[in-house]
Design brief:
Blueprint: H1 2-13, H2 19-26, E1 32-36, H3 42-55, E2 64-68, H4 71-89, E3 94-97, H5 98-112, E4 118-119, H6 132-144, H7 150-165, H8 183-194, E5 202-203, H9 207-218, H10 220-229, E6 232-235, H11 243-253, E7 259-263, H12 278-281, H13 283-286, E8 291-295, H14 303-313, E9 335-339, H15 342-353, E10 362-366, H16 372-382, E11 386-388, H17 394-397, H18 399-412, H19 417-423, H20 433-438, H21 447-452, H22 458-474, H23 479-488, H24 492-503, H25 507-521, H26 527-543, E12 551-555, E13 564-569, H27 580-585, H28 587-601, E14 604-613, E15 615-616, E16 619-620, H29 625-637, E17 659-662, E18 666-674, E19 677-682, E20 687-691, H30 692-697, E21 701-703
Helix pairs in contact: 2-3, 3-4, 5-9, 6-8, 9-10, 9-11, 14-28, 14-29, 18-19, 23-25
Length: 705
């Protein structure tokens, strides 16, 4: 009967399952953990499993519940099942996100007990006074004494979500590390505000989970109803589930525990958002009689990409040991390129894209959304349309961008008091609001000239004269040069560094934002043209969601589940991937960064480009530690790749990826060879250049033993 089912499905769907996929389909009674490596056909296996339950086991489709992490995944599963199996099964199973299911539990309970609730997310609040972000803005200002920035709002909402998903009590949130000052007090007041009326609570997105979990704990009848309703539960992307989501699913599955959990611990990317990988790693502690199956065959990528990625992720310790393999043919090893500057990295990508045979099968992947802005600008100038996987408009409304535009405008309109009022605290001038109010009204004269007529201290007059000279000097400069003067001579960069130190902003992110603004300004001649360029790019980003048949731009996080013929992973430098926090945290922080890099690699079918740069905005960078790992792997597996010819007098062959020991600096790896210059990156991330000839003459470099 089982063989007949798979033969029939092969005829009906054209899909033939592997042995391990068949075992997963046939395991219907009791708990199953299906560990599925990238490209191993996990969604196909899950859908076959649902079809098998209905067709062969006679299970009512309405008693099968498929739960997944995102709306897109739930929608995809439902659509694929409908297209492939609905004519054979005569019915549809329920495919839902965990949040949607939890909200259904809350609605059912409220309806039965004639209770009310109000959702306060987005625009769904019934009034501005019943809106999550509006309340958080008010509470932040009450506790901090300053208005909240968009970055701080993002961090505050993340912390609240993290606390709830990890089931951290109000009393225990003080143990969470954060730059948001007085977070425990803000969190406490926020929760108190929502629960003023327990018969009509206010609910944010994550409250759907906490309330559903609480209701199923406290109402045995409600829990029993759902347990009877769903005889079989299947969860996808379970490595991304939080502690409270795992708790909910475990309750629903009892007492029969007919549950199939599909996960890949090597693709856990959301611990910062509350994902709890330990529930997967210790699955047998929850379900002692569970069966574990490993889907290790990758049907997506070339032999070289699979082999290198498999060895790379193996550096992590906190994981199931898996051996990903493929029957796909060989193609080419991952291509590693270290560009001289960040700008030359962009130029290289643009030139390469022009040679790609099919841009809709090509992607640019980056760690941070901010990395997209220089690429968007360059792609537009090159006439290459694109689709953005992540829609993030914060760059275009960021206060740093507004500051820069106001500086530029004031340079052009030095008589405009309103413009100076907006920026007077952002450069060294020591200008007070009282002084601004005291200046004489004369729209024909420069505002700073009028300020200098006041009774000022000597030191203030000195810095104001210097500021006036800087503003006058940039009046005729093109925008990019104007920005450089604003950052340096007018001390704007120093100012935001001080603000970062006192208010808890991430200065590196703000400095990176300034670099992006400068990049956009590079191609325009006037301030008005720069402003038009910003508006044009913002419009382009908004429209890009309709360009799904073009080149894809995506963060590495959002790329999970996607695949392309060619992938360009960019900005692979220390401080980005891995981030400074990853490096300092070591342990789990570093392992999650490894997983993120691994996810990016395994999006590629045939060509994988790994790109770094050595300088950005005048600051030197070092190649990602992960690229050194990849080079070591390539050097061992494919010793003929990227090999420079040795010098005739060299006692050993120098190759990129070769592990050496420097007499003074210790162990390192050859990261680049150019003529007589060798670049070594040492184990602590420090990178140094040496003369090959001098090193050999003085016997300071030797192969690592």
């Amino acid at each position: 009967m089982e063989q007949d089912f798979f033969e029939r499905m092969a005829r009906e769907t054209g899909k033939v399952l592997s042995d391990v996929q068949r075992k997963a389909v046939l395991h219907t009674d009791g708990p199953l953990l299906l560990l599925a490596t990238p490209g191993s056909g996990k969604t196909t296996t899950l859908l076959f499993k649902v079809a098998y339950l209905i067709i062969e086991k006679g299970v009512d489709p309405r008693t099968i519940l498929g739960l997944t992490f995102s709306k897109a995944s739930a929608r995809e599963m439902a659509e694929r099942f409908q297209a492939t199996f609905s004519h054979l099964t005569g019915g549809m199973a329920a495919f839902s996100t965990i949040h949607s299911f939890a909200f259904k539990v809350v609605r059912d309970y409220a309806s039965r007990h004639h209770l009310g609730y109000t959702v306060i997310e987005g625009d769904t609040g019934s009034s501005p006074h019943l809106n999550k972000k509006a309340m958080l803005r008010r509470l932040f200002e009450e506790h901090q004494g300053t208005a909240i920035t968009e970055d701080q709002m993002e961090e505050l909402t993340r912390l609240i979500s993290f606390s709830k998903n990890r089931m951290i009590s109000i009393e225990a949130v003080s143990s969470i590390e954060t730059d948001i000052k007085k977070f425990p007090e803000i969190f406490r007041d926020y929760e108190a505000w929502k629960t003023r009326d327990m018969n009509h609570p206010l609910m944010d997105y994550d409250d759907m989970l906490t309330y559903a979990n609480m209701l199923l704990d406290s109402d045995a009848g409600l829990l029993s109803n759902y347990q009877r309703q769903f005889s079989y539960i299947l969860t996808d992307e379970s490595q991304d589930s939080s502690l409270i989501q795992h708790e909910l699913i475990e309750k629903l599955a009892r007492p029969n525990n007919n549950i199939c959990v599909v996960a890949d611990d090597d693709q856990t990317l959301y611990s910062w958002r509350g994902a709890e990988i330990n529930k997967i790693l210790h699955f047998k502690e929850t379900y002692p009689d569970a069966k574990l199956l490993y889907m290790e065959e990758n049907y997506r990528s070339s032999k070289e990409i699979v082999e290198v990625a498999n060895i790379f992720v193996g550096r992590n310790k906190n994981r199931y040991k898996k051996n990903m393999y493929t029957s796909n043919p060989s193609d080419q090893p991952p291509l590693i390129r270290s560009c001289p500057t960040h700008a030359s990295q962009i130029d290289f990508v643009i030139d390469s894209l022009k040679k790609e045979p099919d841009l809709k099968e090509t992607a640019i992947l980056y760690r941070n959304n901010a990395s997209s802005i220089p690429f968007i600008n360059a792609l537009d100038l090159a006439g290459i349309p694109f689709y953005m996987r992540d829609m993030d408009h914060r760059f275009f409304s960021h206060w740093v961008l507004k500051d820069i535009i106001n500086f530029m405008r004031f340079a052009e309109e030095p008589t405009n008091e309103g413009l100076l009022e907006r920026i007077h605290t952002k450069f060294t001038g020591y200008i007070s609001k009282r002084q601004l109010a005291m200046i004489s009204a004369d729209p024909t004269r420069d505002v700073i000239d009028r300020l200098l007529e006041l009774d000022l201290k000597f030191y203030q007059k000195k810095v104001l004269r210097a500021a006036r000279a800087s503003f006058r000097s940039i009046r005729t400069l093109p925008p990019q040069q104007m920005i450089r003067v604003i950052r340096t001579e007018l001390d704007y960069e120093k100012t935001i560094k001080k603000m970062s130190d006192s208010l808890g902003f991430n200065f590196e992110n703000l400095r990176d934002l300034l670099d992006q603004i400068e990049t956009v300004a590079a191609g325009v001649d006037t301030v008005s043209a720069f402003e038009e360029r910003i508006l044009h790019l913002e419009s382009l980003v908004k429209k890009s969601r309709f360009n799904q048949d073009h080149l894809t731009l995506s963060t590495l996080h959002s790329s999970k589940g996607l695949e392309f013929d060619s992938v360009y992973m960019v900005d692979l430098v220390n401080g980005v991937l891995p981030s400074d926090d990853n490096i300092s945290q070591k342990g789990e922080g570093m392992e999650e960064a490894v997983r993120l890099f691994y996810v990016g690699m395994t999006r590629a079918r045939r060509k994988l480009h790994l790109l770094s740069y050595r300088q950005k905005g005048g600051a030197k960078t070092t190649e990602s530690l992960f690229l050194l790992d990849i080079k070591r792997i390539l050097n061992r597996m494919y010793p003929g790749t990227r090999t420079e010819q040795p010098k005739p007098d060299s006692p050993f062959e120098l190759t990129v990826g070769l592990e050496l020991t420097h007499r003074l600096f210790g162990p390192g790896v050859v990261s680049e060879l150019s003529g007589d210059v060798v670049r070594l990156q040492f184990d602590d991330g420090v990178e140094k250049m040496f003369s090959v000839e001098a090193c050999i003459e003085n016997d300071v470099l030797r192969p690592k033993t």
